[in-house]
Amino acid sequence: MASRKAAATGPGTGLAAAANRERAHLELAELGPLLEEKGEQGAAGPPSAEDPPCPAAREEEEEVVRVLTLPLQAHHAMEKMEEFVYKVWEGRWRVIPYDVLPDWLKDNDYLLHGHRPPMPSFRACFKSIFRIHTETGNIWTHLLGFVLFLCLGILTMLRPNMYFMAPLQEKVVFGMFFLGAVLCLSFSWLFHTVYCHSEKVSRTFSKLDYSGIALLIMGSFVPWLYYSFYCSPQPRLIYLSIVCVLGISAIIVAQWDRFATPKHRQTRAGVFLGLGLSGVVPTMHFTIAEGFVKATTVGQMGWFFLMAVMYITGAGLYAARIPERFFPGKFDIWFQSHQIFHVLVVAAAFVHFYGVSNLQEFRYGLEGGCTDDSLL
Ligand SMILES: [Zn+2]
């Protein structure tokens, strides 16, 4: 750690200049040394002797220089780091442009300005929820979505049992959906909040974030399959098992370190799109067995179609980075593709909940009976 910082601080002249700067002024130039990339490390080693007389003497000289300067550099770097951490702790940081971000924070090069600097303090990260930067919209869209689904979930669980045919079973089924939604949305806002903490933290939370999407999709399938195939336990079990296997596979893929890199943006969109589109098979099954009219009325297919359109649009905008790709720098703070994707996810999950609630009501209206052979 110290050597990295020593390396990043560079040869002594910069230090003296840096030390003279005003302490209360957290300028980019000051953040710069902390943001320098790994590639620069080599350049900051011991100052090399210009024209070495002989290898042995040069080595000795280098050793002496290293012994003398490194601890000093490390000490200054440590002081600098402490000062930086202290300022971050106090909330005295400014947004910075994309160019000076460290590699691990470089995600979307169409967002030119307004990024948070790396802030290795959870307190600072959480305080940044109330500041304006590139992640503010991403945090709030899913923080509010989380509150919405938490409330909906609690209300559903507290609903009197008389409104259900098999209260315990049905509440577990709805519970799976709410658990998926609440976990997905909370992992998401947490990830966007601590994304700038450090490379390790950002990587860990991005894995949780992606796993959350898989959990939401899996959870969404549960009540839909439960009510759509109410009287056909066998296909219901088969479809449920398939979506669980696919969902767990997506979670495993999300643990792959390079999954979160900008290069694999399309892979990510593809994995979750594929998981969602696995719903096409049971949809076809239901529509063929019941006919188009019943599928759209009783089966609520219109709502589920709307939900699918929202998810697919969201994933498409996310993968293609629309609109910021057409106007780089114009959507740094608001209306960037990721925020639109977030809003569409919350809206789609809500539409899904509405459709599933209608399915539940319909089965309740039939008094849960499976006597009508024309219905799955
Ligand atoms: Zn997100």
TrEMBL record:
GO CC, any one term: plasma membrane
The keyword Zinc is annotated on this UniProt entry: yes
Membrane topology label: Multi-pass membrane protein
One GO MF term attached to the UniProt entry: adipokinetic hormone receptor activity
Domain of life: Eukaryota
Biased composition (Low complexity): 1-19
Residues given in the record as Zn(2+) binding sites: H192, H338, H342
Keyword Membrane on entry: yes
InterPro entries membership: AdipoR/HlyIII-related
Alphabetical UniProt keywords: Membrane, Metal-binding, Transmembrane, Transmembrane helix, Zinc
GO biological process: adiponectin-activated signaling pathway; fatty acid oxidation; negative regulation of epithelial cell migration; negative regulation of epithelial to mesenchymal transition; negative regulation of non-canonical NF-kappaB signal transduction; negative regulation of receptor signaling pathway via JAK-STAT
Main localization of the protein described in the UniProt heading: membrane
Location of the protein in the cell: Membrane
Membrane spanning stretches: 139-160, 172-196, 208-226, 238-257, 269-289, 301-320, 340-357
Segments for region (Disordered): 1-60
UniProt family annotation: Belongs to the ADIPOR family.
Protein name: Adiponectin receptor 1
Organismal lineage: Eukaryota, Metazoa, Chordata, Craniata, Vertebrata
